[in-house]
Amino acid sequence: GTVPPGAHGRFTLRTHSCGELRTAHLGEEVTLCGWVQYVRQDLFQPFMSVSPVMVTPACSCLTHVSSAILTGEIEVHANNVEVLNICQKLPFEIKDFVKKSEGLRMQYRYLDLRSSQMQYNLRLRSRLVMKMREYLCNLHGFVDVETPTLFKRTPGGAKEFVVPSGEPGRFYSLPQSPQQFKQLLMVAGIDRYFQLARCYRDEGSKPDRQPEFTQVDIEMSFTDQAGIRDLVEGLLQYSWPEEKGFVSPPFPVMTYEEAMRDYGVDKPDTRFEMKLVDISGAFHNTQIQFLREALHQPGGSIQAICVPQGAVSSTHMHFSFSHLPSDNFGRLLPDVSRQQLLQMVGAEPGDLILLTAGTEGRVRPLLGRLRLQCADLLEGHSVKVRDPSAFHFLWVVDFPLFLPKEDSPEQLESAHHPFTAPVPEDAHLLYSQPHKVRGQHYDLVLNGSEIGGGSIRIHSASEQRHVLDTVLQEDPSLLSHLLEALDSGAPPHGGIALGLDRLLAIIVGASSIRDVIAFPKSFRGHDLMSHAPDFVSEEDLRPYHIKVTWPEGLTPGGEDQ
Amino acid sequence: GTVPPGAHGRFTLRTHSCGELRTAHLGEEVTLCGWVQYVRQDLFQPFMSVSPVMVTPACSCLTHVSSAILTGEIEVHANNVEVLNICQKLPFEIKDFVKKSEGLRMQYRYLDLRSSQMQYNLRLRSRLVMKMREYLCNLHGFVDVETPTLFKRTPGGAKEFVVPSGEPGRFYSLPQSPQQFKQLLMVAGIDRYFQLARCYRDEGSKPDRQPEFTQVDIEMSFTDQAGIRDLVEGLLQYSWPEEKGFVSPPFPVMTYEEAMRDYGVDKPDTRFEMKLVDISGAFHNTQIQFLREALHQPGGSIQAICVPQGAVSSTHMHFSFSHLPSDNFGRLLPDVSRQQLLQMVGAEPGDLILLTAGTEGRVRPLLGRLRLQCADLLEGHSVKVRDPSAFHFLWVVDFPLFLPKEDSPEQLESAHHPFTAPVPEDAHLLYSQPHKVRGQHYDLVLNGSEIGGGSIRIHSASEQRHVLDTVLQEDPSLLSHLLEALDSGAPPHGGIALGLDRLLAIIVGASSIRDVIAFPKSFRGHDLMSHAPDFVSEEDLRPYHIKVTWPEGLTPGGEDQ
Q1: Residue B442: per-residue pLDDT
Q2: Which alpha helices (H) appear in B141-201, and where do they start and end?
Q3: Is B518 close to A167, i.e. CB distance below 8 A?
Q4: What DSSP line would sit under B281-307, residue for residue?
Q5: Chain B nearest CA to A53, separation (Å)
Q6: Which segments of chain A have a pLDDT < 70?
Q7: Is B254 helix (H, G, I), strand (E, B) or coil?
Q8: Going by DSSP bridges, is the β-strand pair A212-221/A192-200 parallel, antiparallel, or unpaired?
Q9: Which residues form the Aminoacyl-transfer RNA synthetases class-II family profile domain (chains A, B) (predicted)?
Q10: How many A×B Cβ pairs under 8 Å?
């Protein structure tokens, strides 16, 4: 870190942290405080560091030493040793190589956090957000504004936790993001806003989701998409941890259509090739029935990916295909098609070609998932596909503004949220063919994960009213305060939110965002240490005018019968 | 601010902010974006600044100008003016001298925030917290750790909002502070923790309280009271806004007993004298019956304050006394007592002496309140008592660790919280006379308001168990995770929490913390802009297995009958 030398001793009973002592300190009298890792033959060895840069874990007793025993270049001789606290037998040893179950780690999180990896993760998180703040606040004049988390339920906010108030029937809602507030701050003339915002989402038991998470929330007036991209690229470049290499703006920009065409997904992992190839042209006159049928349906297409050296590795690779007679397929192809196919996908001897036929809308995502599974499988067998130390950033733009609703496809819903402005050249289509409108939404993708998303917002009250009333057929009265605000001279504005937990997990190479959060919930939303959520007495609920409705088979205060 | 010149134009459609233009820019072509304050004879004049340092408010239309009209030393001539948005008639004029009702300000908060005072308050808040972070994180190696807000109800946490989970009968709780987590982080070896923590407290309709508020939350290992005081004094000195003068550590330290004795309150406003004086000595042989009676009861005392020039001003001052025949009182005193009294309180001609008799426990707080009321009354009549630009910091220490419970005085409760360590020389009394133990708690007081509080914590599991089990008679199983954590080698540790909203309100001289919060709730806990809290349908509550219990006379979804 950049912390001045000697700073870690200030305000404490020690004169130095253990990690600070060097040959320059020879002959000095020092006072150290720390943990003893283990005691052997009445000597505690090694005396462990409490340097805030890397704390090594507690074990048997906690000491306060005027001059003691240290590893490294120097030795500290003890004049006096004071035991500050003792330690009972721990549920697991605190050594990085001791594997613990996830449940045990969560139950004794305060011990798990003593591991060098978790110390690194939390300290890196602190350093990174500090650099982000410096960039936004000190270098670019952004204003850090806190917005409420006790708010009103948003239309369609099915994933919002409710918080009963003291007034019968009235509830606050924990918002999924400060979206409305950040826009209102632009109307309020704040010009440049940011916040490390706590957000809430009740998604039940989705893997690797947390009911509360943190986003780097940003909004700017008088800007455009290029302005936001510049800002965020500079932000990441400035705050990126030194030991993780460099971030080199500008990041590539890809349209949604290109991403779906080449990678079969809207968040492509561009660390490796294996792009989707449309090979329909090689099969125009095919006699193979399932390919003919696929090509003749509306939007029909045959597409492939070529897995380099996949045939060599394929004895290890097990895919489950339905409808695809893969073993016999090569024999069915006429030589000419086979040659054309190999050329189109650029196959070399030993490569594996995976082919799908059907409507484009189904074929692309399927191949997109297969592409990622192939990469995982190959890497599982030590074939190098992706550089684990590489960070590939990518902007994806030109998303459709609206999508057909899944349960009633004749109706439209916002692809992201109803405040996203249309791409200027599509704006007139809002009033005639809204399904064709592209939105000024942008996603930031890192190594195949979406780590941020944002948009230029609608700043015209009449356009916003049209989108809510006519296109989405939602009740605009729920957002009347926002519409009124737009009517009071709202500047053009836009912003972005970066998922801090996900970004950090990728930076430190963690498999779960739980590893970059100090006290995460389990995948069922439980705090295994304190046993939250917990039962609350009827009496304690009375001031909130609510009562539990027990499903059949459950009894108050009890478990499943 | 310290933001580099030109930074406010970056990432935007403008080349400069209006406030940036100087004679050095003469002859340049610039693009400006901003609000027009008013239009007069087809000229908008003045074109208002969107400098992020001070935004002046929007009015009739929003423009985008290549070269326009500016106040100050230079003029900008417009080549082209583009209207970016229009503005409907506003509910109030955005001029600082236009007084608006609190309700209107809250309903149209996004307009209210355009006032120069609110812009100043929010931008100062951002600057101040940034400086605090620099001090803690960059200069002193503190780690910024986010802790959960969806937690478990704490024992006796009557003021905690509950959040229903998807599991029948189970609730999260929104914690009043990260107290348990900050202590667990010390056990986890984080050594130095801080967080700008969102906290929650359901206090119904208390004036000038907010259901969510922010505290600067700090905890350190291997420290003591002096260490925490040093740290906080340095923090305030470093982050203090230049334009508000200087903070000069060390701050005075006063014991709880001294504060009560001299000021009748545990958060003395030391900007002015008028201290309490025990004048019992002048009345040992008094014949006045109510004084005799007062002195003869256990703990009986006669005390006074002397209000300088209060007799002169007293024709304007109206106190309501019961039991005190004030007009005739002077005549009842023998000359010798009167002289002694005047001398004891140091009265000069024209001063007013206020005298109370009774038990010390009642007399001191009463005089303490009278002292503050006198100051207010005198200032209301333009007598200078307190310097409005002065900031008097004060530490109050040596609080009692336990107090008798109000409703059952034979039982003890924590004066602050059950984790506070005893003063070392009183520790043995924990096991014999707990009511006599002083705690290592400290309050930070600014101008008579408590702006922070903290303590050195108990780090011995057995001591903590004794306090919970035997002294407080609470169920220790609710805190078993914390007790287990202390048993795993917890270092000695302590910390503090500063109330950020209150601190800022005092710095900017606001009468309410609402003036330093972007989107505060009304005193009834309502968001008057969005109408939170609001009704939620039975269907939306079903996933949480709760149902509203409507009090008689109220109907679902309706108001009072």
Answers
A1: 98
A2: 179-187
A3: no
A4: GGGTT---HHHHHHHHSTTEEEEEEEE
A5: 8
A6: 1-2, 37-64, 66-73, 96-97, 156, 205, 313-331, 555-561
A7: strand
A8: antiparallel
A9: 122-520
A10: 433
Among the listed residues B401, B461, B442, B383, the one whose alpha carbon sits nearest the alpha carbon of residue B255? B442
Q: Are B126 and A136 in contact (CB under 8 A)?
A: no
| Least confident range of A319-323, B72-76, B284-288, B529-533 | A319-323
Q: How much of chain B, in percent, has pLDDT values that exceed 70?
A: 88
Whole-number pLDDT of residue B510:
95
CA distance B98 to chain A (A): 17
All residues of chain A having their beta carbon less than 8 Å from the beta carbon of residue B143 are 52, 122-123, 126
Closest Cα partner for B416 from B443, B434, B394? B443
As a whole number of Å, the end-to-end CA separation of chain A is 54
The closest alpha carbon to A82, from A59, A67, A63, belongs to A63
Q: Where are the beta strands (DSSP E) in B186-319?
A: 192-200, 212-221, 253-255, 277-278, 300-307
What residue of A is the nearest CA neighbor of B488? A87
**pLDDT of the residue at A72:** 58
More confident residue, A497 or B64: A497
ipTM: 0.92
Weakest mean pLDDT among B111-120, B338-347, B400-409: B338-347
CB distance B535–A111 less than 8 Å? no
Chain A interface test: which of B534, B537, B545 (most A C-beta within 10 Å): B534
Rounded to the nearest angstrom, the minimum Cα separation between A236 and chain B is 15
Domains and CATH numbers, chain A: 7-89 (2.40.50.140), 118-249+437-461+470-516 (3.30.930.10), 272-380 (3.30.1360.30)
Mean pLDDT confidence for B317-329: 48
pLDDT band at B543 (very low <50, low <70, confident <90, very high): very high
Considering CB atoms only, which of B57, B144, B519 is closest to A126? Answer: B144
Give the closest of A62, A111, A231 to B491, CB-based.
A62
